[in-house]
Design a protein that fits this description.
alpha+beta; 218 residues; 2 domains; Glutaredoxin; four-stranded mixed β-sheet; Glutathione S-transferase Yfyf (Class Pi), Chain A, domain 2; binds glutathione; single chain
Length: 218
Amino acid sequence: MLKLYYGPGACSFVPHVGLEAIKAATGEEFETQAVKLHKGEQQTPEYLALNPLGLVPVLVVDGRPLNQIVAICDFLDRRYPQVGLLPADPWQRAQAISTFAWMNNTIHPTFTRIFRSKNFAESDAAQAEIKRTSQGVFRGHLERIQGMAEKAAPFLLGDKLSFADAYALVFLRWAGLAAIDPASLPVYQAYVARLATVPPVAAAMAREGINLDTYQKK
Ligand SMILES: N[C@@H](CCC(=O)N[C@@H](CS)C(=O)NCC(=O)O)C(=O)O
């Protein structure tokens, strides 16, 4: 049995979309548990037993917890290769993981510096500076994704929905929270709007109770 612990709108959306795609293609059911990050539910002893870092996502597979998005998604793809969430060809697969790893280990932590700047500096001035500089770096990454979206056919990695698409959607939602107007990235915005109508993506968004309307002008 598969059970995903997720935070609504958080990076756990990436394996969530994968699980919905697997369910649609194979009929494999999964359970979900929402974790209220703003209430600190990721810090309870029960949750820390699943992930000692106190982070979502966790995928519990037959009672065994698995942490880290890249590992979770690699596991899902290897267990259900027929769904095609990552390419089968070794070179194409490596290229897909290269993009996916960049999203997870570079773009994602850049947003964390904006969203949780208190974790990175003590003074208000230093936090504001981290936020400001990270916002510029984050935007640069989004522009690179926009370049990829220009060539989407119709998905980032070709003709199949992949984890990279789900991450791209998460980042554009986060851009809104970081006071970056998604309309200033029109090709990216149009690609994400299309993505949101793809059934596994729409199903994960509905369960998480999220939409694309996150822009907070500052
Ligand atoms: N490298 C981790 C990143 C996970 C992560 O940063 N999760 C965030 C949500 S997007 C979280 O749980 N934050 C809660 C907190 O910081 O307390 C992974 O790939 O799973």
